[in-house]
Request: fold
Amino acid sequence: MIIPAFNEEESIVATVDSLRGIASAVDYIVIDDGSIDSTNELCEEHGFPLIRLPINLGLAGGFQTGMKYALQKEYDAALQFDADGQHIPAFIQPMIQAMYETNADIVIGSRFAEGKKRFSARMVGSTLISGLIKLTTGKSIKDPTSGMRLYNRRMIELFANKQDMAPEPDSLAYCIRKGASIVEVSVEMQERLAGESYFSASQTVSYMLRICVSILILQWFR
Amino acid sequence: MSILLRVFLVVCALLVLVFMIRRIRKAEIHTRDTIFWFLLAACFVIIAAFPQIAFFLSRLLGIESPANFIFLFVIAVLFIREFTSTVEIAKLRERITTLAQELALAQAGTDNEDAIENRK
Reply:
């Protein structure tokens, strides 16, 4: 279980504590992505298993560090889990269950697997990305932007060794085209406890642009 | 091609030369990085000295004035340069990322060993 954290001093302890209570059967590791607040000290104080990156690499680099660690330690599966308290540990077990039952390469903790999307700017973006993935791969993914994803051994190897594989929707499309099977499990999410999202409002436009171009055009040459 | 443009090209070449030599003196850039700029300066001087080249090439490409050809030439060269720079930066970023990750993983490895040692 990989928890990338960048300046998450307000939420990291609560997040990891909540997860230790419920999902005690899984190992976890915090990836401190060169935080400049007390995230690092807090993790050491509480004895959380920690990998500290000397510089800030961004979500993709931090997450990949976790994947490399998982590969080194020969884990069968790795879960991407947010440090900001958005993700709820109670839904981890159903996701693992789903992976066992369906033999999927990637299990997505999906907010919209059942039920409708609430209308908001974020949902419009999400729907657009879903549409693009459907268009280019023929597969329907209801919640491509969910940050709660479980990867099997094959995907761990792929993400650890291949550069330019951010844990983002365009990589999902890439994996599907490479023959990965993806299953969605219905989960709930909370509002973030604290901390800044990797995507601030001003970055959202450039994020959408990058993902759309990547899925529509660049994907075919990767 | 006016005499003014030719003088301008030579002045540009001299400026590039002076700028590069100052940077090399201060050891701010490596000699191998300057080769491109010296070649560009040399091109300016050659075109200034032999404007026939610009005339010939602009006729060949159907460009009305040689001055326009020079603009096009410079823009094209800079485009290529910018593109190779982008590739270079991407390579460097990838290397830094890998270095940081390997360092962090190695560090985490020794920390864990220490923790196990301490527990004994």
In short: The helical segments of chain A are 12-22, 39-45, 58-72, 92-102, 121-137, 153-161, 169-177, 201-216.
